[in-house]
Amino acid sequence: MDEWHPLWAASRIPSILHHETPMVMGQAEIDRVVEGFGQSGLHVQLAGLDGIEIHGAHSYMLGQFLSPAYNKRTDRYGGSVRERCQLILDIIEASRRRTGPDFTVGLRLSLDEFLGSAGITQEQGEEQLEIFASTGLFDFFSISGGGYHTVHKAAPPMSVPHGFMIPFGKRAKEIVGDRARVFIVGRIVDLGMAESVLADGVADMVGMMRALLADPFLIAKAREGREREITKCAGVYDCGNRLFQNREVACMLNPAAGRERQWGEGTLKPAANGTVKRIVVVFGGPAGMKTAAVAGRRGHKVALLEKENELGGHINLIRRLPTRGEWQTAIDNLVHAMEAARVEVSLNVTATRELLLDRKPDTVICATGAHYDTTGFSPYRPDRDFIPGYEQSNVIDVATATSTALTDPRALGRKIVILDETAAYLPSGSPRCSRPMAKPRSKSSRRICSPPKTYFAPPRCPFCSRASRRPACELPLNILSRESRQSGGGLRYLGRFAADDYRR
């Protein structure tokens, strides 16, 4: 804190994520960075570790020097592909002077920023890789892609295909040859896929960070033949979102992540002799399934009752949205956990009072979940508890709207208003799953309400491969946005937008 200085960068390009404008680094600042990397490498070596990885990808400082999207310099650190590599070349030389030739040093690169000619193209990335490999100073290259403009490639969510970077790893392996090892990442979600990558010679090592966050015992379980007990990553990316919010990294599918002391391996206490209970869990959504699995692991006799013909609760609706199908993985994880805990599951069963009494349980756990609101209640309007007219027949909740649109794309008509303060899947997914639209069924507009949380517009479209202020779809929408408190804090009509407007 006492050594504060302005944010440094290759050029004066504001961050599109953090909205800060940096100070352009001069030679003095560059020298400090080079010296700092060299000294840090030495500290790691003295601490007894085997090596370091220099992060030159994803629009961080070194990645910005490599990228024409950020590097507008005209000195020896900018211009040609070779000149944009100069800072990293200075850093590796300083690191080697401090640590010697036997200390492992690797470099992470975005082989393609997926920005076209505005950023690092694959051709430029391959040229950079050749420049670094020809020095003989690197022991490995970790191949990734994307950056702040294309963060869905740098940290791919479930909408991005599994193993999408594998072809880039293969090309990197061809360029590097025997001069260094090649690591590859990019939604390699299970050990079978990882083994195929290695067997095919695409890379020498596979990175699976989020897979291990979802289940740190992934490899141990596979070795013990317990593959069905592995909690698989579904690409929800709550972990990365929390990181960018300066919050603790956590995993939506593994609540023990970050809480290992309280909930980690070895902390579960089996039920003592004479205390085993007969437990009935009502409703098979995520909370009910997780509760049943944990209680079963403790040794209790657990039965779960679900009135529908499938488990999953609200997730079953979300997983039906475009690009959201991998939410099924979250359901499967919990189903497998219940199987391992020998939970008795009954579908198409309504938990009546008579049925529960007949089962003679010691404990009944009601995990019946939440419901969606149609009142339009908003914490930003403390003067009222609902929007006038919410009781009209054409005002429906977001789950009903989504389910209706998925069943019949014409059912909602053509004029739709979505009032949303959540920036979540269902509000932005409702219009997407309503296309293509035919003639309207009625002259009145449909109004869809979702529960309040933050603001109207989702910060990033979950359906297309770029940042967007609005969801991409083919359906004209009437958009309402909340005005500032200074202007009264009411709702302001922004206009009627079509698909082409969204893509501009």
* Helix-strand category: alpha/beta
Poorly predicted runs are 434-444, 451-504
Q: Total number of β-strand segments?
A: 16
> What is the C-alpha radius of gyration, as a whole number of Å?
27 Å
Distance between the termini: 41 Å
Task: Tell me about this structure.
The chain has 504 residues and is an alpha/beta fold. Helix content is 32%, strand content 14%. The chain has helices spanning 27-46, 61-66, 81-84, 86-99, 122-133, 151-154, 166-176, 191-199, 209-214, 218-223, 238-244, 260-263, 286-297, 315-318, 327-340, 353-359, 398-407, 425-432, 499-502, and strands spanning 8-9, 23-24, 51-56, 104-110, 140-144, 181-184, 205-206, 278-282, 301-305, 344-346, 363-366, 395-397, 416-419, 446-449, 477-482, 491-497. The strands form 4 sheets. A 5-stranded parallel sheet has the order 3-4-5-6-7. Helix 13 links the parallel strand 8 (278-282) and strand 9. Helix 17 packs parallel to helix 18 (425-432). Residues 434-444 and 451-504 have low confidence and may be disordered.
Key phrases:
504 residues, alpha/beta, 16 strands, globular, disordered C terminus
Present the secondary structure layout.
Layout: E1 8-9, E2 23-24, H1 27-46, E3 51-56, H2 61-66, H3 81-84, H4 86-99, E4 104-110, H5 122-133, E5 140-144, H6 151-154, H7 166-176, E6 181-184, H8 191-199, E7 205-206, H9 209-214, H10 218-223, H11 238-244, H12 260-263, E8 278-282, H13 286-297, E9 301-305, H14 315-318, H15 327-340, E10 344-346, H16 353-359, E11 363-366, E12 395-397, H17 398-407, E13 416-419, H18 425-432, E14 446-449, E15 477-482, E16 491-497, H19 499-502
Parallel strand pairs: 1-2, 3-4, 4-5, 5-6, 6-7, 8-9, 8-11, 9-10, 12-14, 13-14, 13-15
Antiparallel strand pairs: 15-16
